[in-house]
# Entry
Amino acid sequence: MKAYKIAVIAGDGIGPEVTKAAVAVLKKVGELEGFGFEFTSCDAGGCSIDKYGIPLTDETLNTCKASDAVLLGAVGGPKWDAVEPALRPERALLGLRAGLGLYSNLRPALMFKELAAASPVKNVETMDILIVRELTGGIYFGKHGRADSSEVLSDGSVKGLTAYDTEEYSTTEITRILKEGFRYAQGRSKKLTLVDKANVLESSRLWREIASELAPSYPDVTLDYLYVDNCSMQLINRPSTFDVIVTSNMFGDILSDEAGMITGSIGMLPSASLGAPGTPGMYEPVHGSAPDIAGTGKANPLATILSASMLLRWSLGETSASDRIEKAVRQTLADGFRTPDIKRNDDPAGVSLTDTEGMTAAVLERL
Ligand code: NAD
# Structure
């Protein structure tokens, strides 16, 4: 029987709780579909700092590189807030992305109709957006630092200490991610929105130039542009009109949380980070380690379970198994199971509160 190699990085906070749920779902769907898994647990983030003094070891990175795919919970938490920046738990994510060459971050924001009442935005009937976020460039990776300046300003004051972070993008990086955006749009509703800040930023103007050069090669896709501030408004105003959004690292980071919240809860949002074809992708919920609810059983495991579904589809090509998980999640919601983040006081009869394990068991039954 075929056995796929999966590196599992449970991480910190609710990470171990939600990855346990996703691994159980993967095992079950493998049994049903006739394939198996070889799971290898790896440390990264705060738990790695505690054990090894660094957030990401070579051993973890090498295990990930040798796997078919990586499933990650979340890293970080207040325990490590005082750690020096270069050693913070979140550096593990940057190290994994760089080490695995992951440049494309797919963040679907899909509104399940059963959760429409849980959305903080009224009257959202449908919403199915794919945010394609560039992952290895931009301000998170640009030159950053601090400089002291004795320059005297016009008001007579001394400029003093300055901190800077630089947004930098190369033609290669932009072209690569824009092509992904066009391709995903071709496979969906054929609408691509480039979100930028081209009225102010030179890097955004380069994104626009390259997008307009590429557009004729994808004649079936309608390309439009939005400034990021306008996009943040339009996501609330008309979420159902978006299809694929392609954008830079930081804008994608922020907009995907916003789009996610419209779907009801960040606890529902999966993501995939992909590199060149044939290399292992990394799958993780959009949310963080949620230290405020860790260990309470309140964590919604569906974002990680849906990330496992993406793993099956995008890294293993097991589309039938992936479909099965999505169907089981939909049925679980239709049958009224709700973790606290998606439960509302005015939910109709038949909707009831459950915990992480209860939600996982409900999905497993429905598989
Ligand atoms: P967070 O996503 O962890 O939590 C934000 C809010 O959403 C909290 O109220 C939390 O309880 C809730 N929430 C998150 N996931 C949930 C789930 N599955 N079910 C129910 N409720 C959920 O963001 P934060 O509080 O800004 O960050 C906490 C820590 O996580 C920080 O150390 C941060 O750096 C880290 N972080 C890690 C990742 C990652 O590993 N990819 C991503 C974001 C934040």
In short: DSSP finds eleven helices and 14 strands in the chain. The chain has a mean pLDDT of 95. The pocket of nicotinamide-adenine-dinucleotide is lined by residues 14, 18, 74-77, 90, 93, 266-267, 284, 287-293, 299-300, 303, 341 (CB under 6 Å).
